[in-house]
Amino acid sequence: MKRIKRIKNSCVSQVEHNRLGLTLAETIFAGVVIAAILAVLVLISQSLRTDNEVEETEYRLSVLHHALTVYHETYDTLLPEDTSQALTILLSDSATAPLLRGITVEAIPGTPEKVQVLDGFGNSIRYVPPQERGNAIGDFVSAGVDKSFGDVNKQNPEGSKQDIDNMFSSETDTKME
């Protein structure tokens, strides 16, 4: 009788012990759920960061386009083809310099006499002269998310993978508020 009681107590304590921990299947399931939640959070944060970068790029392009338009209307002349020279003229002109206060213009590393404006993705924004862009005053362009300009002149009617996300200052809504 004592032996049966001891075996019975041993079985009960063994069952209670197993219920206190997680089985391998439960542990794996919990790990999968946690991994899925983390993946969703990473995707959401990446999307928010990209949206912020696009918004910042649109703002900078809008400011540059406004300054470009004011310069052209004031002097009825075109900017030089070199982006750094074009930016330097806009920065030194009394009509356009106040418009550019909202964006950061920095020296190009290794060539302190040249300046650049970076888009929200960290790429240098380029000036495309009117003869290449096919408009009256030219345009500023960002390479976009893929950091590759492709055909900035849009000469290829089908486009390419690189220029599909290019952002042009003339195509941005006014974001300067």
List the helices and strands and how they pair.
Layout: H1 2-20, H2 24-75, H3 83-92, E1 105-108, E2 111-117, E3 126-128, H4 130-133, E4 139-142, E5 167-168
Antiparallel strand pairs: 1-2, 3-4, 4-5
Overall description:
The chain is mainly alpha-helical. The protein has a domain of 118 residues: TcpA-like pilin (2-Layer Sandwich). It has four helices and five strands. The strands form two sheets. It has a three-stranded antiparallel β-sheet. Strand 1 and strand 2 form a beta hairpin. The mean pLDDT is 80.
Proportion of strand residues: 5-15%
Nearest-angstrom radius of gyration? 30 Å
Count helical runs: 4
Poorly predicted parts: none
Task: Report how far apart the termini are.
Answer: 89 Å
* CATH C-level name of the domain at 54-171: Alpha Beta
Q: CATH architecture of the domain at 54-171, please?
A: 2-Layer Sandwich
Give the CATH topology of the domain at 54-171.
TcpA-like pilin
Number of separate strands: 5
Q: How do the helices and strands follow one another from N- to C-terminus?
A: HHHEEEHEE
Spatial sequence of strands, sheet with the most strands: 3-4-5
